[in-house]
């Protein structure tokens, strides 16, 4: 396509600490938890609590958790994100850069790298299948801040979500089927999504509807009824009510319902990270087995699999064609 040489792609994810050290964790969490999209508490109440209590206590603990999942090339989220960008660039034959909402590489550096390659239009692909103000909208906010620091602002288009895209559903289903071929089919498949405060959904965030639709379509693709598959929300933080049912509480109950062999998958995460490799794969496994579960199998994220790259390429190509 003639205009492809002037079009580039910015792949966006949440971000990750630069190192698995308390100092780097503190720096990353400070930026993340200062975002009003993530924590909307009054600043004069929140900031002293964050810097005086939460970060000093949490940073060393989180650093130890990161050390347990850190790869030789760096943070799992960054390693897989780099691989995704490289493979997508090969597939599309257009410039592709990474930009993280928090941490490095920043949205600003990603945009600047694309402009240096002669890009005039940027297709922004936040790797959040299900839209939420806490993630996708935070990307748009971050882009606005980045543009304020740029002399030349490119035209851009944001892909808002892909929670019901056929290639996304098929890629998830294929990853489940591959796990079944290798390990055998379980009695139950649990889809665990990252949670958000219930108040956000009550105020109009469509995230839970998107999660429910993804689960429904995946169940159809796999041919599983409600007796064989369900969905929950993980990673809650603070004291207020988050979206339910909670993953950890559900795992405590399932063995008593006769489900002793469980598969768990995290459809909202495009790459494996601390929340999947440590919280889901290890913590949740312990919770389930302590409650009487016998077999717990975590199915990895789509990461840089061929089916995932095919999905990303399809999402971008649809925008390239529309831009003709």
UniProtKB/TrEMBL annotation:
It is found in: Cytoplasm. Catalyzes the ferrous insertion into protoporphyrin IX. Pfam families: Ferrochelatase. The gene is hemH. GO terms for biological process: heme biosynthetic process. Belongs to the ferrochelatase family. It catalyses: heme b + 2 H(+) = protoporphyrin IX + Fe(2+); Fe-coproporphyrin III + 2 H(+) = coproporphyrin III + Fe(2+). This is Ferrochelatase. Keywords: Cytoplasm, Heme biosynthesis, Iron, Lyase, Metal-binding, Porphyrin biosynthesis. It comes from the Bacteria. CDD domains: Ferrochelatase_C (cd00419), Ferrochelatase_N (cd03411). The keyword Nucleotide-binding does not apply. Its EC number is 4.98.1.1. GO terms for cellular component: cytoplasm. Its main location: cytoplasm. Fe(2+) binds at residues 194, 275. InterPro entries: Ferrochelatase (IPR001015), Ferrochelatase_AS (IPR019772), Ferrochelatase_C (IPR033644), Ferrochelatase_N (IPR033659). GO terms for molecular function: ferrochelatase activity; metal ion binding. Pathway: Porphyrin-containing compound metabolism; protoheme biosynthesis; protoheme from protoporphyrin-IX: step 1/1.
């Amino acid at each position: 396509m003639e205009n492809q040489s002037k079009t580039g792609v910015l792949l966006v994810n949440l971000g990750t600490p630069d190192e698995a050290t308390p100092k780097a964790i503190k720096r990353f969490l400070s930026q993340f938890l200062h975002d009003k999209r993530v924590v909307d508490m009054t600043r004069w109440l929140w900031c002293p609590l964050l810097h005086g209590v939460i970060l000093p206590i949490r940073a060393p603990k989180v650093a130890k958790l990161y050390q347990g999942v850190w790869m030789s090339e760096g943070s799992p989220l960054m390693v897989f994100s780099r691989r995704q960008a490289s493979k997508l660039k090969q597939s599309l034959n257009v410039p592709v850069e990474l930009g993280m909402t928090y941490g490095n590489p920043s949205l600003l550096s990603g945009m600047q790298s694309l402009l240096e390659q002669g890009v005039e239009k940027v297709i922004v692909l936040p790797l959040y299948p299900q839209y939420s103000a806490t993630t996708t909208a935070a990307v748009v906010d971050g882009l606005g801040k980045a543009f304020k620091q740029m002399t030349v602002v490119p035209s851009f288009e944001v892909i808002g979500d892909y929670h019901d895209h056929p290639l996304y559903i098929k890629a998830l289903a294929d990853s489940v089927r591959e796990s079944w071929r290798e390990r055998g089919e379980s009695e139950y498949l649990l889809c665990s999504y990252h949670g958000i405060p219930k108040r956000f959904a009550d105020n109009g965030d469509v995230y839970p509807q998107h999660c429910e639709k993804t689960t429904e379509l995946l169940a159809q693709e796999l041919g599983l009824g409600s007796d064989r598959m369900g969905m929950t929300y993980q990673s809650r933080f603070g004291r207020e009510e988050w979206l339910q049912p909670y993953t950890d509480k559900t795992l405590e109950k399932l063995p008593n319902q006769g489900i002793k062999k469980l598969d768990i998958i995290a459809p909202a995460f495009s790459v494996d990270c601390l929340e999947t490799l440590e919280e889901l794969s290890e913590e949740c496994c312990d919770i389930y087995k302590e409650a009487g579960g016998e077999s717990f199998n975590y199915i990895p994220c789509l990461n840089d699999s061929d089916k995932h790259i095919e999905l990303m390429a399809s999402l971008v190509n649809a925008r390239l064609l529309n831009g003709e």
